[in-house]
Batch of 2 targets.
Target 1
Amino acid sequence: MKDENSVLKAIPERLLAWYDRCARKLPWRENRDPYRIWISEIMLQQTRVEAVKEYYTRFLAAFPDVFSLANAPEEQVLKLWEGLGYYSRARNLQKAARVVAEECEGRFPRSAAELSRLPGIGSYTAGAISSIAFDCREAAVDGNVLRVAARLLASGDNVSRQAVKNEVAEQIRAVIPERAGDFNQSLMELGATVCLPNGEPLCGECPLAEVCEGRKQGIAAELPVKIQKKERTAEQKTVFILLWNGYAAFRKRPEKGLLAGMWEFPNIPGALTREQAIRQLEEWGLALLDLSQTAPAKHIFTHREWHMSGWLAHVEPRGSAADFLWAGREQTERELTVPSAFAAFTKILRREWDNAPRRE
Ligand code: SF4
């Protein structure tokens, strides 16, 4: 990121002049009524401007102010929301309307901090209402603004990270001019109509082209960098600590994939009951001498979690027993790499060895 202060300081004047000339006429821009601005911001979450217009007009006709929305039957609110999806938005809208009507005499708080205490209002929406309705110098950083900022600054930071979003909000807050609401809207407008997503910025039409580092460096179309953190998948496993005459059973993990080539306690997917565990031991060709359940354990990898239940079994292999490596304590500690994902079970095994006579 290069000299972000000088780049960002250069944008308010240029952007506001452009906004005054080119802003789209939208129904929620007719006046600065915080109620109307709030409704539009909630409707615009996850929904395109064109799709929102009609809903907005109908909604405002049915509920022209915060009291009418607060007092309406919920079914009527949901009906007018039908087709917009994400119905929790509509329910939160009415909850927040009731708070404003009953606790604030119908007046919306001015500060983003107070606004964000209302149901359904996050930091972006709070900043948008506070700045657009009251010209408070609050940043309102949505996906459009993140994209514009990343390109202006030629920043390769991952904008999916909350820390990066916070930093962008701070940088923008530092240059917000008096016309805070118009400035925030001009940034969003630029993102929506000129600095378009998916590698298609219309730099030739952009009022910020001469200060834009991303354009100058020829990398604007590749920005912003968005690396979504993958959801972790949870896997349930049953881990067996199998002991035979002081030797413990291990098997080698596949040579490719997670913990490739490392040694592990025999384990299988799912959480096995005692009966299922006994059947599993039989399948492995092991005669059972004693069986007790261990405490469960959990291990978190980057993209998955293992939730493990465990059984400690003293066994005796039969002729056709599964092909495990039976290792004594010294060999285990000297030669086998057992991943820390199994640390809880390794600890139990050590305790067993501590309490048993050495046999190696
Ligand atoms: Fe976006 Fe291009 Fe304008 Fe830079 S010059 S802000 S990349 S449209």
Note: The mean pLDDT is 92.
Target 2
Amino acid sequence: MTIAPACPVYALLLAGGVGIRSGLDRPKQLETLGGKPVLRWSIDALTALPGFARLTLVVPEEWRNDHAVIAGSDADLCVGGATRRQSVANALVEIAEVPADAIVLVHDAARPGVSADVLARLIDAVAAGAAAAIPVLPVADTLVARAGPRAAGAPVDRDALWRVQTPQAFRLDVLRAAHAQWTGAEPTDDAQMVRALGHDITAVAGSEALHKLTFRDDIALLESLMGIEMTGSTRIAVGMGYDVHRLVTGKPLWLGGLNIPHSHGLSGHSDADVALHALTDAILGALAEGDIGSHFPPSDAKWKGAASDAFLAFARDRVAARGGAIEHVDLTIICEAPKIGPHRDAMRARIAGILAIKIEHVSVKATTTEGLGFTGRGEGIAAQAVATLKLKD
Ligand code: MG
């Protein structure tokens, strides 16, 4: 159906809102849907487009790192503004050098159900000469005016109305002009700003799967709309991981993804974060996909001094690639010092961020060995982890 556009396609993905209506404790785009972060669904769909050039991801400042871990090298990050309009304006500055005739898609990360079909319809419309194209759906419910707090007024002609979704597609120069010249109240999308310049907006068929994630219950609804089959054909898989690294002087201590002030650090080929290594092996174990050494051999100079969150993110992505979900991880750190208690919640938050799961699904425990053995003598730190995954059968 789609024609490869003659001009490159740029995408602006808005993840600037923190979803305070959703009842979730962090931005909704970081939640897991069908085994991968909500945000990742849009990134995967947009970067797979014919003619795709570059993705700019607009994120809340305080959650920047969580988004960076999920996006990896697939997106340039920029920080959002106080309004949706300002967030798009910030992203347009990031692509200031892109030619005026490029096609640009503006999409909300809270709509993960973006399909190749809808994208093709939007891009084809702009490639064929439209200034802007938007996905729309008919209204199925009867609509009435609000006559009072509990009073229904006259019916409104639903055949005269459409529901408008994102992504929306624009010729880049048109979108730039619309943002430069806008003087109205805060708009809820970009097409209305382009229309205010006198351009026609082309409507193409949208999709129910583009339902916006607003409330917690929407996760199950979206899994159904997007045809994600997680029930009835899943199994629980449990994996365990164990690792030890030697304590030495003159090295920073990386533990559970945190740099912890201590007299000694762990020695190893990477940053030697024994806790993240055990977690990575636990997840790989549940997948039955080897161990950390088989994917990141110490003989490979590439991993010298590497930050171990990359290993854990790799394991997370392997779970997503298998259509699974990480349900829970439980980590035990075994050492005499440093004390883990003061760092426990920061460690849980860091691991939850890397794995894109809720902090309630991350347990961090610690124990000493009563002065016995290598851990008791302070020669090294050991870590054990158990990961529970939901996998397609
Ligand atoms: Mg190790």
Note: Residues 156 and 169 are 29 Å apart (CA to CA).
